[in-house]
Amino acid sequence: MAKAAKKKARTGKKAVRVVAKSKAATISAKSAKKAAKPTRKVARKKAPKIDPLNRNQYSSMTPMLTVRDVRRAADFYTSAFGFKIRGIMDSPQGPVHAELRLRDTTLMLSPESRAQQSLSANTIGNTPATLYILVEDVDDVFHRALAAGAKVLMPVGDMFWGDRVATIADLDGNKWMIATHKATPTEAEMREAMARMSAPSEETAAVTAGAESERGP
User: Fold this and answer.
1) Per the domain annotation, does 142 fall within a domain?
2) CATH number of the domain that 135 lies in?
3) Interval 148-165: pLDDT, tens
């Protein structure tokens, strides 16, 4: 019996050692896992994404006009057309750039510079470009433009395409067609209206006939 007791005691000690080793191995594995976990990197703030089309500031096309006096031109456009000044960039030599806004459109102004071959329409003597601007009341805007110093190129009239339009030249000679949309005619209606506009009036026909009769055969 003594031998059996000794054997049992040795077996118990062995079991205790196995359990202890198992616990130690578990603790070691947990420690290894903790050590293996990567340290968290401090998140860096991403730089704001730049829109290559700069849609927050500009639409697809932005006209830039060369003018003799940037501030005078800006005053005219605000008084005549209702533009709002977004900003004027000054320098020791005077304003070098201005931006105005009307609804969703930006208008840029640049000072005349002969050295840079950047000349105003008045300096050149004419301009091949005409700016078409839609307004709520063409008659009112037309008279405001004249009061601000514009020249009449075409008085207010109803056009065959459905707009009531006038054409003026601003202080720097730039041409503006001011329009208010009045109707949306069909193609057939536009052709008829165009024919009526092209046909000479009775008064014109009478004057022409009188002139021809005076010249004789």
Assistant:
1) yes
2) 3.10.180.10
3) 999 999 999 999 999 999
